[in-house]
Amino acid sequence: MATQHSRSAARLMMAPAVFVLLVWMLVPLCLTLWFSVMDYRPMRGTFDCCEGLGNYTRFVTSSSFQDAVVTTLMMVGGILLITVIGGILLALLLDQPIWGQGPVRILVIAPFFVMPTVSALVWKNMFMNPVNGLFAHLWRGLGMEPIDWLSQLPLFSIILIVAWMWLPFATLILLTSVQSMSSEQLEAAEMDGAGAFSRFFYMILPHMARAITVVILIQTIFLLSIFAEIFVTTGGAFGTRTLTYLVYQRVIESQNVGLGSAGGIIAVILANIVALVLMRIVGKNLDA
Amino acid sequence: MARAITTQRKITLTAVAWIIALLIFFPILWTILTSFKTEADAIADPPLFLNFHWTLENYAVVQDRSDYMRYLWNSIAIAVGSTALGILIAVPAAWSMAFVPGKKTKDILLWMLSTKMLPAVGVLYPIRLILIQTGLLDTKGALIVILTLINLPIIVWMLYTYFKEIPGEILEAARMDGATLRSEILYVLTPMAVPGIASTVLLNIILAWNEAFWTLTLTTVDAAPLTAFIASYSSPEGLFYAKLSAASTMAIAPILIMGWFSQKQLVRGLTFGAVK
Q1: CB distance A248–B217 less than 8 Å?
Q2: Which CATH architecture has domain A63-287?
Q3: Residue among B184, B188, B155 nearest B268 (CA)
Q4: If one looks up domain B67-232 in CATH, what number appears?
Q5: Residue of chain B whose Cα is closest to the Cα of A7
Q6: pLDDT, tens digit (0-9, with 9 covering 90-100), for A151-199
Q7: ipTM > 0.90?
Q8: Chain B: nearest CA to A255, how far in angstroms?
Q9: In chain A, what residues touch B10 (CB-CB under 8 Å)?
Q10: Residue of B nearest to A136 (CA)
Q11: Which residues contact A115 (CB under 8 A, 6 or more apart)?
Q12: A214-246, pLDDT tens digit by residue?
């Protein structure tokens, strides 16, 4: 029963949000696109037209790009693997009737609220430090040589830190999904003699499939732009330079804006492919 | 009929769940404990769990040496400012999308989300350049605006899902009774929308407080919030565990508490309604 009048009022109310987001999205992106075809190095005072696609080919063919892509894939993949499998197990556990469900849940989700720089530094110094870190104490206590985590196993260490931060997110979403499952169905299956394993693989897992997909997609989008954790731990050294970090270094540290902008555009394109899939799923849900 | 669970099974499950939960929470617990230790106790081998000399001196030192209050104030100003600004822009938008949906509403919602997925690093340089040119680099105002823009899609989206749950019939009834648009919003809609707005505010303060890309790349001294303050402990100060822990505890405590209150909204806010 919306009238013409309320429609135009509605459009007016929506306008500011749409406008600021449009500006926010278009202006910087167009500038990046423009810089990406220029030879733009502020430190040398060059701002020359036109490289064409030169920056792109140079960026893509450099070995640091290929390394960065591999690093990014391994990092995102490793974190997803830990958080999704861990999240499923934790969600199933928290769904059980236990004493102190509330407090347990509060403890489990806490890492998500820790500032990225705090968790990275606490892990780096207080746990992974080869001399005074807790792991070093533990290793020595067990009679082993302590490991210098961030220089011997840098990628794995960062995966561990970030997975710790994102495990609560996966757990919480998967728990929501598990809890929406009908317990009568499960009981019926149990009566009919379905064991715990077949109940898990044929009933629970398919029910969670959608939530798992959502967790993977949303985490991928956030994980592709991991920054602070690398910034304060390794600074991109020892093979932990992701695509995001590589672009940051090109643009800010070595001030090769043309080249970095081309890299930025490539990062945008790659992220959009993931985003597109996610939007499909979210969009479908809007109709329901 | 509820399923009968044997007590023994419940005890085992409880024990397993508590052990895992405490392991996951341990780094936070350890940080809090270490913040009350002396530097010598903090690196003692074997580690001291509770039987150390409790002290508050680290908190005093962190405050004295690094002007903690200024960073704290910046964090508060940026988190609260960007959330308030975001709510101000998002409430009318979400309201109109929920109650006067048009053909394009769904597309606009999805498009808004897609801006959230733009990798920040792709636009870092232009943003920096604009801020340098306008003299706004390292100001709270610039960060407030940027964090508002990053979180605006989430704010609109969360409010939209909350507003959608308000039954439209109530509005119609109010209109029948002769309520004007103003009184309809003020007396009918607002009371029902307040819980949703409150959870949105809570979640966004958390997100803005912890945001660590723009706050690290666009600040140096004046506008630096707690994320940058902690990053400055990267080295070598980070090796003073007790002080690092005190600084960390102060940086995470308020948000940890808020976060525990907002755990339900977290799912809704971060999955854009895809998981309910």
Answers
A1: yes
A2: Orthogonal Bundle (1.10)
A3: B155
A4: 1.10.3720.10
A5: B100
A6: 778 888 889 999 999 998 888 888 888 887 777 887 888 888 777 788 8
A7: no
A8: 10
A9: 97-99
A10: B45
A11: B209, B210, B212, B226, B227, B230, B251, B252, B255
A12: 788 778 878 887 888 888 888 777 777 888 888
